[in-house]
Design brief:
mainly alpha
Length: about 280
């Protein structure tokens, strides 16, 4: 368990190294072999999307200084959660915890599409006119706070080992950048890889302007949830190069590609019907 102890002791180093390392990998891959031409200049797109990422990181540290790891330690001290009550192998507890937390993310993703008030927050993620690795971390601060509270609740109920939470957050961040990448795997390789994890081609379907496509492929990491619960869609009807990314109503760059517009987007328009049950996006959505 020396590796586990090292990961826990060096949590910040591990997370930041993986985060910036993945940025270098995906940025290089997208530059060398992009899947689609960008509609917004790369420098502007990256600056604004990464700008909201760093804003969210600052606000999270300000509001939740201990973050998820602190909640795990408290849960352990108070014997909260399943794995603090049931004796199982540490390895089994780590694996099961990561799988359960990934399933919670899948359910949360469906929830923010299904509830109108939450969709207003989540549409900041979907309104991006382009699709690249920075889209994977582009979320409104209020949605980030909501996600953190859901994560805290999951930790309290599950009682996962601290290393499981660290590894899960690292894996989720890496996979979000990977499967939002403006890249394509060879078709034969993609078919194999997506049997296990979400690939860029699989998740790109979810960012289509067509509502039936946008309400599919909710997974961020493991692909089995979409197959298991019937939300899987193989390919976009217009093809990966021909499909339109984003939301019908919001197509002006100042509204969706600049940081002030992203922050204001949830407060625009009227709250209407459930987004996930709609046949078409309305002008209010």
């Amino acid at each position: 368990m020396e590796f586990v102890d090292w990961v826990v002791a060096n949590e910040k180093i591990v997370r930041m190294s993986c985060f910036f390392g993945m940025i270098v990998i995906m940025a290089s891959w997208e530059y060398v072999a992009p899947c689609r031409a960008l509609s917004i200049p790369r420098a502007i797109h990256w600056a604004n999307n990464l700008g909201i990422v760093f804003l969210n990181s600052f606000l999270l540290r300000l509001v939740f200084p201990a973050a998820a790891v602190g909640v795990v330690l408290i849960a352990g001290e108070e014997n909260w959660g399943l794995f603090n009550q049931v004796s199982v192998s540490p390895v089994i507890a780590i694996i099961l915890s990561i799988i359960v937390m990934d399933f919670v993310i899948y359910l949360q993703h469906i929830m923010v599409h299904a509830i109108p008030l939450l969709w207003r927050l989540h549409r900041v993620h979907h309104a991006d006119l382009d699709y690249d690795f920075t889209t994977g971390a582009r979320f409104h601060p209020i949605e980030i706070f909501l996600s953190m509270l859901i994560k805290f609740a999951t930790i309290v109920l599950l009682g996962p080992p601290v290393v499981a939470v660290i590894l899960f957050e690292v894996i989720l961040n890496l996979m979000a950048m990977f499967n939002h990448g403006n890249v394509r795997l060879p078709i034969a390789l993609d078919r194999v890889v997506r049997l296990f994890v979400v690939t860029p081609d699989m998740h790109r379907v979810h960012h289509s302007v067509h509502d039936d496509e946008a309400n599919s492929n909710f997974g961020f990491n493991l692909s089995l949830w979409d197959r298991l619960f019937g939300t899987y869609r193989d390919q976009p009807r217009d093809g990966h190069e021909g499909m339109t990314i984003g939301i019908h109503k919001y197509r002006e760059p100042p509204d969706v590609s600049w940081l002030p517009g992203m922050l204001w987007l949830p407060f625009r328009g009227k709250i209407s019907d459930y987004a996930i049950n709609r046949r078409q996006w309305s002008d209010d959505e």
